[in-house]
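Troubleshooting: if your tokenizer reports a length mismatch, compare against these two reference records.
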Amino acid sequence: MKPAWDQLGDEYKDSTSVIIGDADCTSSGKDLCDENEVRGYPTIKYFTSETGPKGESYSGGRSFDDLKEFVSDKLEVKCLLDNTDGCSTKEKEFMEKWQAKAAAEVTAQKERLQGMSGGSMKPELKKWLHQRLSILKQL
């Protein structure tokens, strides 16, 4: 798996939204692994605004293509303020609306959405909520 992981790291080395890293849980990374409840090796964990501070364990395929597909589909932020090519029309409209608002309003909206993110909702609504949060964090 190490060659696929290293290739994934190379693929995302210039990314502004994805960081690929590794830790040796048998030596210098032991405290980090204990804090994040790593029990077996190798373990892949990912961290997003949805996963909480300990992250979630990845259980998909271990090939480069499997890992890249997961990162691209689930983790990579494609809608950026400085490059809207990856934004949907809905995201662009949301971005324009909130760019015009005062910083205090943006902060209040971000806090409101963060409070909602732990609640139960349909997957498509949860996805849109996190897309909005991602945009607001960039403002």
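Reference record two:
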Amino acid sequence: MVDFARDQKELQECNRDFQVSGIKVMPKGEANLAHLLGTIPGPIGTPYEGGTFKIDITLPGATLGPISVLECEDGYPFAPPKMKFATKVWHPNISSQSGAICLDILKDQWSPALTLKTALLSIQALLSAPEPDDPQDAVVAQQYLRDYQTFLGTARYWTEALAMTSSLGVEEKVQKLVEMGFPEDLVRTTLENVGGDENLALEKLCST
């Protein structure tokens, strides 16, 4: 079963130094510590610099429900967390379609001694050091190997288009949704939980 006490502790420790690391993890819904949303900054000196990337995290060993979490066997931390990019990214080891990540510690090299933050740091390191010979996305890997400059330009374009949200843009979204009659605090929380997607935020606000 999932060790939710450890899970809660990890979230607190990870978020404590957010100002330094830029990495944080939050539950995707209330009373649900088995489905999380991680955030990592794009590494400096890479085409991902300046971007903020959302990582969808599911902890194995739990059945997700709208209100409660039912525990079962062989859960986190003995099994690795299931992680994928919620923000689209152009990278040889990350699917440009599904966000699936090719990383050994999320598979057979996982150890219970590792943490969610360790995994997110490893994903951040993967952004800095792609491994095109062991790709998740063959099309991106071929571009990386055969036309590196085009790869850099494409990866940068995707970062600027999909992973960068100006503070002004966020405030405009907040104002627009507040004017529709939703409480500001709820609007901000919902926008953060969906990675700034205004349409998805509106859908969730209307369903609450």
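Descriptive notes for reference record two:
- Confidence is low (pLDDT under 50) at residues 63-73.
- Strands lie at 24-29, 32-41, 52-58, 62-64, 69-71, 82-85.
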